[in-house]
């Protein structure tokens, strides 16, 4: 992995935002304008040969580094884990990058090495170049990222929603999309049909139920 990091820094010296290695996993961050050229090199260059796109997904970094609850104060029983709206937030990490990014997981079946590539969407509306012409497996992945996050891919052959219903409004994996959805449906006996109406559930943040004792985190002899 160390040799891969060195090779990446040499090959993309003027284009890299960062390249890091954590837990034997290598992550590269590139500006969006270099995505297509860099992807072509990562696939075709003899020192990389990333011939397979394993996965592609969107990421929403809204409120990244902010927490509305502290785990040390979380209860481990009962149903009183709701945090009311307006609860005080705590910042545990500074963040100055764009809100949305796309992450590509690449595999070289020849060299048996993996790479994570991250590209931020730096403009609004959200646009990135499609990599379908480089890795055909990106087709449905990019449609999924558009459907769930609203990220558009320039040059995609069929940029339609993939998972949500016809006429669906919004992008359900965005962090500001309510967990209860925007609309709810019910059968109206008088009208004898299914009707849609705004959700009447007030959203709130749930504090996770925490199990404090975990043998994986106990020292020897404890």
Order of helices and strands: HEEHEEEEEEEHEEEE
* Largest pleated sheet: 5 strands, mixed
- The first-level CATH class of the largest domain is given as Alpha Beta
Beta-strand share of residues = 25-35%
**How widely separated are the two ends?**
36 Å
Overall tally of structural domains: 2
Helix content range? 10-25%
Strand order of the largest sheet: 1-2-8-7-3
Number of E strands: 13
Q: Figure out the total of helices.
A: 3
What secondary-structure arrangement, pairings included, does this model have?
Elements: H1 2-11, E1 18-22, E2 25-30, H2 35-44, E3 52-60, E4 66-67, E5 82-83, E6 90-91, E7 100-108, E8 113-120, E9 127-129, H3 138-149, E10 152-154, E11 183-188, E12 193-198, E13 205-206
Parallel strand pairs: 2-8, 9-10
Antiparallel strand pairs: 1-2, 3-7, 4-6, 5-13, 7-8, 11-12
How does this structure look, described?
The chain has 222 residues and is of the alpha+beta class. The protein folds into two domains: 1-61 and 99-163, Beta Polymerase, domain 2 (2-Layer Sandwich), CATH 3.30.460; 66-96 and 178-211, no CATH class. It is built from three helices and 13 strands; from the N terminus they run H-E-E-H-E-E-E-E-E-E-E-H-E-E-E-E. The chain starts with a helix and ends in a 16-residue tail after the last strand. The relative contact order is 0.16. The model has no long low-confidence stretch (mean pLDDT 85).
């Amino acid at each position: 992995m160390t040799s891969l990091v060195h090779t990446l820094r040499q090959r993309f010296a003027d284009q890299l935002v960062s390249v890091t290695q954590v837990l034997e996993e290598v992550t590269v961050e590139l500006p969006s304008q270099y995505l297509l050229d860099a992807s072509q090199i990562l696939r075709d260059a003899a020192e990389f040969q990333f011939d397979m796109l394993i996965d592609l997904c969107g990421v929403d970094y809204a409120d990244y580094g902010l927490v509305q609850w502290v785990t040390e104060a979380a209860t481990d029983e009962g149903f009183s884990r709701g945090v009311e709206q307006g609860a005080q937030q705590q910042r545990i990490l500074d963040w100055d990058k764009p809100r949305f990014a796309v992450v590509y997981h690449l595999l070289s079946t020849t060299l048996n090495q993996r790479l994570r590539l991250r590209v931020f969407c730096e403009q609004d509306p959200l646009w990135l170049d499609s990599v379908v012409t480089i890795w055909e497996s990106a087709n449905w992945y990019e449609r999924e990222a558009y459907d769930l996050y609203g990220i558009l891919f320039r040059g995609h052959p069929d940029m339609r929603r993939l998972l949500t219903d016809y006429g669906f409004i919004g992008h359900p994996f965005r962090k500001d999309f309510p967990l209860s959805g925007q609309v709810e449906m019910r059968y109206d006996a008088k009208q004898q049909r299914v009707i849609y109406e705004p959700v009447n559930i007030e959203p709130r943040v749930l504090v996770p139920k925490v199990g404090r004792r975990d043998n994986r985190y106990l020292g020897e002899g404890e």
